[in-house]
Specification:
Layout: H1 2-76, H2 82-86, H3 92-106, E1 110-114, E2 120-123, H4 134-146, E3 151-157, E4 160-170, E5 176-185, H5 188-198, E6 201-205, E7 215-218, H6 222-234, E8 241-247, E9 250-261, E10 264-274, H7 275-326, H8 341-368, H9 372-380, E11 386-399, H10 402-405, H11 411-431, E12 435-440, E13 443-448, H12 457-481, E14 489-504, E15 509-514, H13 516-527, E16 537-540, H14 541-545, E17 553-559, E18 568-573
Parallel strand pairs: 14-16
Antiparallel strand pairs: 1-2, 1-5, 3-4, 4-5, 6-7, 6-10, 8-9, 9-10, 11-13, 11-14, 12-13, 14-15, 16-18, 17-18
């Protein structure tokens, strides 16, 4: 970018000198050509503006679609709606109440919730009923067949033209439990917004082949809009492209564009601009161009010298600053106290470097300190001390005699070996939907069912433990081939109601779980050190009881663990037994 700025400085000097020379030559011929060219140029300029306006219009529609899709994705991340969908039967009244609350947040007039088969579950608009969900169902079909995260299109709802978007609701990913359908009307307010952005008159009409041609929305007076509709009825075969159309005795350059609808004939868009308004400045220009030609030549010469001197130094400063930013130095600021575009560019550069620095700080914090699930919990909470009681399956895994096994290795090799082991085990835990709560030396504490609840948390934990045992065998074979010591671990698993939430002080928080059930999981892991049990994985009776399908397990009897008054039944789990395939989160 710095190189481009320097080239721009050099190019601007040459351009200014060239412009001064060209002005002297061109001004002698301008007056003779202006009158003849004005009308032609005005029509051509309007035609260009119409096509630019058409692009702006479609861009506005695309931005509206992205806004609706983004709003739907925000709603799909709301954990509050998913439990309602899991109820049998579904509480449609409560679902509608939730959707009504979303309309205020996302500013979408129509929000619907549909089943994966396209059945209407709830909708915010009382006027629209099940007969209006067909277009949403078509979009759901398109998104499903194309395996896309969203689909959009245009259709009529209750006879009015709308832009539609559907986005899936996962629980959990990639299982789609419902689809959000959002609709935004293409009404007069929308047409006026397009007019404000393009300074063009805009009309939407139904397809000319329809028996009752309708003006759907327009910025024109009703009588002129009806004339546009009648024109398309009389010659709709030529209604795609630009042409001159007389409305109310005034010529309008008009561009007709199709708007494809879902399962229906395309609607029509008419973008217009009056020729008289475009020609007015040109007529005035014809009267004054002769008087200002000589003054413009002198002024251009002086301005070229002033601009060349004023542009060179700021561009050099901007070029030097871009090199610092490219090198990753976000601490420097460029001081350019100017009120023109270069001053605004300098301010934008400073804001950009501040944003890049803040982005890197946040990325480092959330990427290195916490897991994605806990990061999401922290970002969506108000970061206050406290928690909630919930049933969680806790898994403790600790290496056996790691210090003894690795004492002959250099410290750097020990750390590399440990990190390699922790990376392999952590990946398996996360693959089964578990969350790493913390690393305690060479020990791992993992949670299943928090911060996101999972009804099959015990099954996930059991499957993870077995896969960890198989992964350790593979890792040990790799270590043996590299001449490194083999590793062994013990795993304790317990399911219990614990308190989950933000723990710590007012200035430093940590999302974790506490309770007697956590301590028991740690004690079970410690029992794996006893040779009498002859198993690396010990599971509590509570975990097996919480599973829908109880796996084969060898009873180990009852034990009294430290901190519990009553004896606990424990079981040995075959480390290499059959297990279900990994769970997806």
């Amino acid at each position: 970018m710095a190189f481009r700025l320097l080239r721009f400085r050099h190019f601007s000097r040459q351009l200014l000198l060239l412009l001064v020379g060209l002005i002297a030559l061109v001004q002698t011929a301008v007056y003779l050509l202006v009158t003849r060219a004005n009308r032609h140029n005005a029509i051509e300029h309007i035609d260009q503006n119409l096509r630019i306006g058409a692009n702006i219009f479609r861009q506005n529609l695309s931005e509206r679609i992205e806004f609706l899709a983004g709003s739907a994705k925000v709603m799909s991340a709301d954990a509050g709606i998913k439990p309602l969908l899991m109820q049998d039967p579904v509480d449609r009244k409560t679902l509608r109440s939730v959707l009504l609350s979303y309309t205020k947040r996302v500013k979408a007039p129509v929000i619907s919730l549909l089943s994966p088969e396209g059945e209407l579950l709830a909708m915010t608009d009382d006027v629209l009923g099940a007969e209006n969900v067909g277009p949403f169902g078509e979009l759901i079909r398109q998104a499903t067949e194309a395996d896309q995260e969203q689909a959009s299109g245009y259709s009529y709802l209750a006879g009015k033209l709308h832009v539609l978007v559907v986005v899936p609701l996962y629980a959990p990913y990639p299982s789609v439990v419902a689809w959000f359908g959002l609709a935004y009307p293409i009404d007069t307010a929308f047409a006026n917004a397009v007019k404000n952005a393009t300074r063009l008159e805009v009309s939407f009409t139904s397809n000319p082949d329809e028996p009752n041609l309708r003006v759907l929305s327009t910025t024109l007076p009703p009588d002129l809009a009806d004339s546009v509709a009648r024109h398309m009825t009389a010659s709709h075969t030529s209604a795609l492209g630009s042409e001159m159309l007389t409305l109310g005795g005034e010529p309008y350059v008009t561009l007709f564009e199709p708007l494809d609808l879902l399962g229906e004939a395309p609607a029509r868009i008419a973008l217009q601009r009056p020729l008289t308004a475009e020609l007015a400045p040109a007529r005035e220009l014809e009267r004054i161009v002769l008087y200002i030609s000589l003054a413009a030549l002198a002024a251009a010469t002086l301005a070229a010298l002033w601009i060349a001197r004023g542009v060179s130094q700021p561009v050099q400063q901007l070029a030097a600053h871009t090199k610092l930013v490219a090198a990753g130095d976000y601490t420097r600021r460029i001081e350019l106290p100017r009120e023109d575009e270069l001053g605004q560019l300098a301010t934008a550069f400073n804001q950009m470097t501040d944003g890049l620095a803040e982005r890197d700080r946040v990325r480092d914090l959330l990427g290195k300190v916490v897991s994605p699930e806990i990061a999401a919990q922290l970002l969506h909470s108000d970061l206050q001390l406290g928690g909630e009681e919930r049933e969680v399956t806790i898994l403790f895994c600790d290496l056996r005699d790691f210090t003894t096994r690795s004492e002959k290795l250099p410290p750097a090799d020990v750390l590399a070996l440990l990190n390699r082991y922790l990376d392999r085990m952590s990946a398996i835990i996360e693959q089964h939907g578990g969350v790493i709560d913390k690393y305690i030396g060479d020990a791992i504490m993992a949670l299943f069912g928090a911060p996101v609840a999972a009804p099959d948390a015990p099954e996930r934990a059991i499957a993870a433990a077995r896969d960890m045992a198989r992964a350790l065998d593979i890792l040990n074979r790799e270590f043996a081939a590299e001449g490194k010591p083999a590793l062994a671990f013990g795993i304790g698993i317990n399911t219990a109601r614990v308190v989950a939430g933000n723990m710590g002080s007012k200035t430093r928080l940590n999302y974790t779980v506490v309770g007697d059930g956590v301590n028991l999981a740690s004690r079970l892991e410690g029992l794996t050190k006893d040779p009498a049990y002859a198993t690396p994985i010990i599971v509590s009776e509570a975990t097996l009881a919480a599973m829908k399908t109880r796996p084969p397990a060898r009873p180990l009897g009852e034990v009294k663990v430290k901190g519990k008054a009553e004896a606990v039944k424990i079981f040995a789990l075959a480390a290499k037994g059959d297990s279900a395939p990994p769970y997806s989160s």
